[in-house]
Every structure is written in C-alpha cells, then in structure tokens.
Amino acid sequence: MNFDNSLKFPGQSTTQKTTENHGFYTDLGSFLSELEIPTPTAVDVLHNLQKEPNGWQLASILLENSSSQNQFFGAHTFQIKISRDWNTLPEGQVEQLRDEIIKWIVEFSNGPNLVLTKLCLALTTYALRTVPETWTNFIPATLQALEVESKKPHSRPVNTENAFLEILTLIPEELNRADLIGSKKSQFNQELLDSIPLVLNTIGTFLSNDTRTDIAYELLRQKSLRCLQSWIQYGIPSDSLAPIFNRVLILLQRESTFEAATEVLIELLTRQGNSQYGNTLSESFFQCITSPWMKNVVDTCIRESNEDVASNLARLLTTYGEEFTEYIVQHLAKPDTSIYLEMMIGFIGFPGYFAEDQEISFLSIKILFTFQALYTPFYS
C-alpha cells in the first residue's frame, strides 16, 4: 500500500477535538514522541485515529518508527482494523494489505518478539477473513510469500524460520478461539488438515538437525516444540505424530529443550489419551521415563531442591500414571515399574510443604493412591 504521513490529528479535524488539557498534536512527530512513553493523551488519540478510515495508513507509519513501543502499536493497529473495520477496507486493497503485513513480518522476523507476534496475529486474523474465498492453501502460500519477501532488501536481520514458526503456532490457537460457524469453520479446518504434512515436516526439520548447536538454533528448536504443542492442542490426527514422537523423547534429555519437550509430552498424553496409542506409546514412553538418565535427573533435582525441574518431571510422570494406570498396575513385576514407583515415592519427600511452597509431593501422593485403589481389586 502506498501510505503517506498525511494523518489528521484530532486538533486538525473539523470537529476540533481536544484532550483533557485542552491541547492537541499539530504534527506527527509530537504524537509519536508521546506515544513512545506512552502518555494517556497519546493513547487516547491513537484509539481515535484507529477508528478513522485512515487508520489503515496509521499501522505502517507506526511500524516505520524506531521505537519498539510504537512498532507494537502499529502491529496492533493492523490486527484491530482487520478485526473491527474490515468492511472499510477498499475491495481492491485486500491482497495489497496481505502483502504489506507479510513485508512487515519479514522486517521484524528477528524481533522484537512482541512486535512479530502481533504482526503474525494480524495475518492470522486476515486469514480468518479471507480463507478460503480469496486465499486458498494459505499456509503453504504464506511460507512461499515469506521466502520471496526475505530475498528483498530489509533494514533488519531476517529470520524467516522464526517468523514461519510463529505463524504456525498461532494459527491453530486462533482458530480454536475464533467464532466461526457452519461451512466457514469446516473449510478453514480443512485448510489446516491439508497442511499437516507441511507443518510436521517443518517442525521435524528443526527438531532433527543435530549439526547446529548455536543459541539461535536452540531457540528455534524450543519454538518448534511449542508449535508442535499448539497443533496437538488443535487436534492433529494421532497417526501423524508417530514419526516425531521419538524425537521429542530424545529432546527431553537436552537441557535447552527439556522444558518445552516436557510440555509437548504432557499435552500429547492428555489430549490424545491411551485409547489412541495403546501399548505402543506406553512402552516407548515408559522406557524413556524409567531410563538411567531420568532416574539420575529425578534423584539430582530432589537432592538439590531444584523445584523447577522437579515440578516438570512430577507433572510428566504423574500425567503418564493417570493416563496409563492399568498398564502400570498390570506390569508391577517389571523392573521399570519399580524404578517408576521409586521416583514417585522420592517426590513425596521433596523439601517444603504442600500448598504453602510446593505441589510436587501432592502430585505423587495422588497418583500412588490411584494405583493402590486399582491394585486391590485387580489382584484380588
């Protein structure tokens, strides 16, 4: 879009709106300076400008500013204009708006993260408006558009992978929140289902690359795991996850990806349930959580009173026990089961008092009582 800086501020309009102190902004620079703080007056003017037809122009003007605060307001302006004032956008500028947002996504693909997230939310909101009527295959089309745009000159470092993962993470979350009905929702769902192979391939590529150990790539792995968690929450078919499941178990053993992998596995267990996987998931997962590595980590975090690690592990092991209670009770004679129960009992002795400064001991007690309740009638 060919935007200019000819914004009319409240003090310049025919209605001569004024602020509480009876002043007004006579130029763009004054407005941007106070919005950077931001002052209540500047925020009030921003809200008024966003409601006007030239609010579409305001978004890019704010994004061009050097202040991250103003850049965030610019990205947010895109999102609220698409959400609230879609009908005020000239029909001939619908595709142009998409290209403008993608341009800014690439521009901020390496951060600041708050600005990037807001821009990706704006694009997702745009997709909810246009898919599939005027934008089909929008997920692969977005990837292609990002790649094309990334080859153009930009004033900031470009990180296309980071931007695409951010978009992929937000799409299923926003669809679950969106108030879509009837054929519109089913068509949008179909777009997501058709894109699952691309999504999993993209995530799998980042998770499987062991040649990169730099911090930037570790962050991409973490982001890939959060993206995977988002798609599991959406309801990705269980048979599509088999190739990537074992990789997540491996990443559980890496310090940089431990927390994110834990959240993925908990989500997988609670969302999919044992009915989807049966003994296949039970056994492979059980081998991981009763491995010498896991036993050592549990013993260490209890000994060192590392509440963050202990809490994650207690939640993970408890969730497994809740979903596969019968499997554990039926295999009490196995050495792995003894290791599992020993770790759960160890969590009971975690320093501190339940409900006052930790919940770890309660999680363990609860699942052990569950085993006991099932064990008595099962073996009698």
From TrEMBL:
UniProt KW Nucleus keyword: yes
Record lineage: Eukaryota, Fungi, Fungi incertae sedis, Zoopagomycota, Entomophthoromycotina
SUPFAM superfamilies reported in the protein's UniProt record: ARM repeat
Taxonomic source organism: Basidiobolus ranarum
Coiled coil: none
Keywords assigned: Nucleus, Transport
Protein name: Importin N-terminal domain-containing protein
Keyword RNA-binding appears in the UniProt entry: no
Domain of life the protein comes from: Eukaryota
